[in-house]
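sorry for the late reply, my laptop died twice this morning and i had to redo everyting from scratch. anyway the thing you sent over, i finally got around to it. pasting the sequence first so we're on the same page, its 211 residues, then the predicted structure underneath. double check i copied it right bc i was rushing
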Amino acid sequence: MDLSDIRREYTRGGLRRKDLLVDPIDQFNLWLEQAIQAQLTDPTAMTVATVDEQGQPFQRIVLLKNVDKQGFVFYTNLASRKAQHIEHNHRVSLHFPWHPIERQVHITGVAEKLTVFENMKYFTSRPKESQLAALASRQSSRISARGVLEGKYLELKQKFAKGEIPVPSFWGGFRIRPHSLEFWQGGEHRLHDRFLYSQAEGEWQIERLAP
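ok and here's the structure:
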């Protein structure tokens, strides 16, 4: 197989400056709604990129759990590798790959921890199985076998069979306050459309980028 021969044409139409909303969060919400309506698999899945203390980049996929004018929210184990990276370097990037509709969104920004109240409000809204999994897993730590994790999960399931599950102290969320958002729309003959929103003096500026 020659990987260089794998290609396809992008035919779903272009993106023009006049089509863009003034506020990038409004534009993102519009595209997210369209991705959901298109019945994409995991439309809220996003890549979160961080950098460790040696400058080594890492990426992983998490689910977007809220977005508003303040930023993009996801939850994780606060002792996880990504959380440790964020503790060292608050600058992160997000990427939404909506390939079936030939769109991508790339976001850069700064991560901040959510409040205890925000963490509690979301944690208690989760299915009990998800709450137990968060409590059972010390994310990113080394384990000898899957059975260790499953055993801990079953132990906790029995322990909290008739009671509420406490919010783990090592679990919480981050909000990414955006500094820039880039919207990418595939175009014919590789003439893709790219528009970058960036802040200048408290206002969002929009620039077209060459593909």
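The longest helix spans residues 24-37.
thats about all i looked at so far, will dig more tmrw
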